[in-house]
Automatic annotation (TrEMBL):
Stated name of the protein: Putative ABC transport system ATP-binding protein
Domain of life: Bacteria
Entry keyword set: ATP-binding, Nucleotide-binding, Transport
One Gene Ontology term, aspect cellular component: plasma membrane
Organism: Lentzea xinjiangensis
Gene3D superfamilies in UniProt: P-loop containing nucleotide triphosphate hydrolases
Domain (ABC transporter): residue spans on this chain: 4-223
Pfam families: ABC_tran
SMART domains: AAA (SM00382)
Database matches in CDD domains: ABC_MJ0796_LolCDE_FtsE (cd03255)
Keyword Nucleotide-binding: yes
GO function terms (MF aspect): ATP binding; ATP hydrolysis activity; transmembrane transporter activity
């Protein structure tokens, strides 16, 4: 049974066919690496299945609901409550402390400041960055910033984490640390992870691989 299923996705930007009939299916709790060369359509695929970008053609079903048929406010509500996002960099609000950044999605969903900050401190500790709670993102290292971003993605206990090259700006040691902490925390909470990467070392943290080439995807026929 898949939690998230996309079929026959097409997406063009002018003359560029970024997606040319891509399919992907994600089961609850699994970690799937989306691999492929630069420009092959990985980010476009991720944005379409996460309800950020509407495909030109094709369907995306999440938990029985058709994302492509939803209106914008329903879709952003779904993103806010069910999904978490980690990008390469630049996703934290620079004016807020790391603690306030992690607490932000909880505050936006109406949680009291004290409760939101307590939950956020726990998540910073799980990601081993409680030491930077009161610093602003610009005052942390790249690896610390990404761990804060992972804490923020997980604090709402989403069902799916979408991560687009989350270690792309880190050295390999920090990248491995972020991947280890991200996949461990996701497995503990039962969140599925859709991980876009072109680094085989990062993909090694996944249960399964999907390869994208020229806007088409295919499952790699092996399980770890
Ligand atoms: N917003 C956009 N405007 C124009 N072209 C885009 C846009 N986003 C992606 N593309 C093009 O679509 C193709 C696939 O891009 P992308 O999905 O970002 O690939 P990947 O993430 O695998 O590097 C590329 O040729 C890229 O230049
Ligand atoms: Mg990309």
């Amino acid at each position: 049974m898949s939690l998230l299923k996309a079929e026959g996705l097409f997406k063009s930007f002018g003359k560029t066919h970024a997606l040319d009939g891509a399919d992907i299916s994600i089961r609850a709790g699994e970690v799937v690496a989306v691999m492929g060369p630069s420009g092959s359509g990985k980010s476009t695929l991720l944005h379409c299945i996460a309800g950020i970008l509407p495909p030109d053609k094709g369907t995306v079903h999440y938990s029985g609901q058709d994302l492509t048929a939803m209106n914008d406010s329903k879709r952003s509500e779904l993103r806010r409550t069910e999904f978490g996002f980690v990008f390469q960099f630049g996703q934290l609000v620079p004016e807020l402390t790391c603690l306030e950044n992690v607490a932000l999605p909880l505050r936006l969903s109406g949680m009291k400041r004290k409760d939101a900050e307590r939950a956020s401190r726990d998540w910073l500790a799980r990601l081993e960055v409680d030491g930077v709670a009161d610093q602003r993102p610009g005052e942390t290292s790249g690896g610390q910033g990404q761990r804060v971003a992972v804490a923020r993605a997980l604090v709402t206990r989403p069902k799916v984490i979408f991560a687009d090259e989350p270690t792309g700006a880190l050295d390999s040691l920090n990248g491995e640390r972020v991947m280890h902490l991200l996949t461990t925390a996701a497995r503990e909470t039962g969140a599925a992870v859709v991980l876009v990467t072109h680094e085989p070392r990062v993909a090694a943290y996944s249960d399964r691989e999907v390869v994208v080439r020229d806007g088409r995807s295919r499952d790699v026929e092996f399980a770890r």
